[in-house]
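ok so I'm stuck.
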Amino acid sequence: MAAPAKKNSYLAIWISVAVVAALVLVGALVVWMNNTAAAPGAAPEGPGIDSSTGAIAVGSGPDEVDVWFDFYCPHCQDFEDVYGPTLDELVT
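replied:
not stuck anymore, here's the structure
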């Protein structure tokens, strides 16, 4: 019987070590980049931005909300449950 080649097993070990080292390096780089992120800047100022709500005004007409609703859609029902009272209050 032939003995297993030592050269092939050493090659596999070194390739495995190199792959693990590369993964550790990439992981450390990602963590470092996320920890050194800059703080968010100031909110934009301008004539079309309402600073109290953050809404962007387009045009000078009255505020308008269009609600598209499907009676068979469960997500539409969720929207109505959450935002319906607020929209009704804003209409009055």
